[in-house]
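Treating backbone geometry as a discrete language has practical consequences that deserve illustration. No coordinates are needed to read the tokens, only the vocabulary itself. For completeness, the protein is quoted in full, as a sequence line and a line of structure tokens:
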Amino acid sequence: MTTGGKREEDPIGNTDMHVVVTDTGDATAASGAMAVTGYRGPAPGLDSIPTVPIRVADTGDAQAAEGGFANTGYIHQVTMVQQRAPREPASWPHQVGVLPSRAHSFQYRAESDKLQAAVDNGGTAVLGQVLTGMGGVGKTQLAADCARTAWQDGSLDVLIWVTASARSSVVTGYAQAGVELCRAQPDDPEGAAQTFLAWLTPKTGATPCRWMIVLDDVADPNDLRGLWPQASPHGRILITTRRRDAALVGDGRHLINVGLFTEVQAVTYLVRSLSVCGRQEPVEQFTALARDLGFLPLALAQAAAYLIDTGLDCAAYRGLLADRATNLADTAPDALPDDQAAPVSAAWSLSIDRADTLRPVALARPMLHLVAMLGTHGIPGNVLSSQPAVVYLAQHRTTGQEDAAESPGSVSVQDATLALRALHRLSLIEHIPQTPHQAVRAHQLIQRAVRDDLTRVQHTQAARAAADALVSVWPGVPRDIRLEESLRASAVALNQCAEEALFYRNAHNVLFRIGRSLGETGQVTAARDYFEHLVKTGTSHLGHDHPDTFAARGNQTQWKGQAGDAAGAVDAFRQLTEQMLQSIGADHPYTLTSRDHLATYQGEAGDAAGAVAVTEALLQDRLRVQGPDHPHTLTTRGALARWKSEAGNPAGAADALQHLLEEQLRLFGPDDPDTLATRSALAHSRGLAGDPVRAADDMGQLLPHMLQVFGIDHPEFLAVSYNLAHWRGEAGNPAGAVEVIEKLSERTLRVLGPDHPSTLIARGVLANWKGQRGDPAGAADDMEQLLEQMLWVLGKDHPHTLTCRGNLAFMRSLAGDLHAAADALEELLADQLRIIGPNHPSTLTARNNLARWRGQAGDPATAVGALQLLLEDRLRILGPDHPDLLITRHDLAVMQGLAGDPASAVAALELLLEDRTQGLGPDHPDPLTTRHDLAVMQGLAGNPTAAVRALAGLLKDEVRILGFDHPDTQTAQHSLEQWRRVAESRPL
């Protein structure tokens, strides 16, 4: 419209006011246009317009054609209704919208087969397919390839491509199709869209149209309300989206999850993309880079472009990715390839914004902050719904969201779960509650992008909250190996991305839980190595004299001892204790704990007497600092009893444990774990003191209580079960022991796994009782298989491996192959001297067994000399009353008798019998064994009648004490019959 002329008015206040319009010029309009010259406006006197005269003069010409409208002069209001000539429908085949260009190095993927399979299996209803997956996996490219293939092979009459990021875009795309295909009016997009949808509906007698609609990047299922095509035997709709809402499936629509590249696809993509520019690198580098990028197609494309643009090689780019100071945005090329809209660092920002609008509003983003701190391969669901996680969500709810509550109490565990579901619906995470140990998974680059967007304060807060959440759900005792693995993986990932936050002011407890979990699940060397690293990082962040650094050193040394280096642990704890005394003082709990560990490994290294001395001094300090009723004081009392038992006084240990048990029952009750542990130790000491029957009875009474408190799969319950089987076997029922241990071994294997030290020990115990039951050859075969696994799992120098070698030699001796047993033990002894030293109890035991087997194999004279030297060493190391010293005295006397001096043997065994009876009591198995061998030596010394008399008395006592079926009772019965025959043939 054009206007011409002029308006003249008198000055304000002049009542003689009028409007003059002159010289308007010409007005020309054509093709439906409108042209007006002159005065156009409301008439004077209307809508508060002053009533003044309008004077129009000297107007121009007005010309209109082809439906146009032209006027010169005055018009108050013009209403034009135009009828355009309808547009003729486009002929088929026809395409509406532009397909995205094919990406460079595009690869055919399994999802394409799924798309085609869905087409082949389609029915008469509209065939709908929904490609869903996280941003960057290549959904658009797959959809474009599918559409392009169908278009080029002539199977479509109409192809519609719509970028469907908003409802208005879908309406506009449908409207354009309506205009081009079915004469829809372009001025009414909603109406045109509905016209198009109606046109798609099959009509009787009409020529069928084979159509395909692609709605790319649907952001909200609600955007498609009222825009789904009706059923058609000839149509197909394909949707790409990051959403996984239930509204997208059903009504014949099939959901196809688009995943990442496989490793082969990812490496192939990099090789092809770089080879175009003449770039070649080792396949190993491409493989490593693909793994670093999580096989994400978008990231691989941008990485390839960056490498080409900058000239960097894969190793340098990987270093850039690994640098914590580098943001993900800094690894993107300046110009994105394949018409990509956003760099990887920003690929998910809109999805996060939209997830945060879903119920519960404003919780998805802070939940993603926690997820970003943890592992990529599966986060236990209860971590993210724990109390620390819920508190974090409440305190960090996204600001600016409508309906977002501000009170921390307004967030519940259910809200936390729904926040995970919101992230899952946007394909930002995988949330699979059916696998609780690995319920939440997130791609590593999404996690990296989320962390990059956090400020330093936000990063620290999220990291500490994630650490608190892990610790809050971490079981005190590892019952479930898979759960331990998942918790450790998340904790390790947290440490890698937030080490500084975890050392803020102190070392977070989650750092210690990682190492303890490794050790407690049998990975003792890994635990040792982990704590060695923790000592270094702790020293770097906190200093060498910080209590947490000392704690890390203590854990490192403890697992060093558990890994088999007890002597090295003693030296390290002694040094650590001295440094603690100087830095944090003698009364600090960490110092006291270090002294406790020092005593433990001193005893494990073979110095039970030294362990007693250290523990006695420690007990006095705990009484002074912590008081008599402190749990640690009572634990030290239990340790003191243990080392007294190891030092040769199991009866005294049993008395001390009885008093300790009474105190623990008073203070903590019968269900306290320490109380139950003391009951187990007491029963064990009673067995060592010579009463295996009572030990078995005590263990039998304890076992149901342990089951009630701990559960059937708890390691403490399993340990008591093994002790019960052991003492039943010692009480004369090896077959029963084997039966029980076989069942326990199956459970231990299931709970702890095949490589856990407890599982390996259980196999050794089972083989031992199998041999003592009467199958030493089969037991030796089992021991050989066990030894192979121990060598692989624990190494050749581990104490458990050395013990297995000794037990294998023992089984060979029981099987009658004394020479092979002695040769194997001689090799073992050389390794023991090198690894644990000449004074270790195990080394002394090996010397004793080697001498005895050499003597039994036909060389008692050499055995006598070896045992005499051993007796001197044991007397010096252990003292005159130690049970092991008495064993050597016993074997020395027997070898003297076999070497031709039975009279000296009789004299030595008589003295030994007095000492054993005095120290252990007449009913202990050791005095009974001495009585048997004394009677045999009496017979060999020429007095078979005395032998018969002694053996008859022994048989009567063993029937009373051990039972008639006990192996020792049967041996006495056999010897009695043998010497009776001798006595009858040689009367005095």
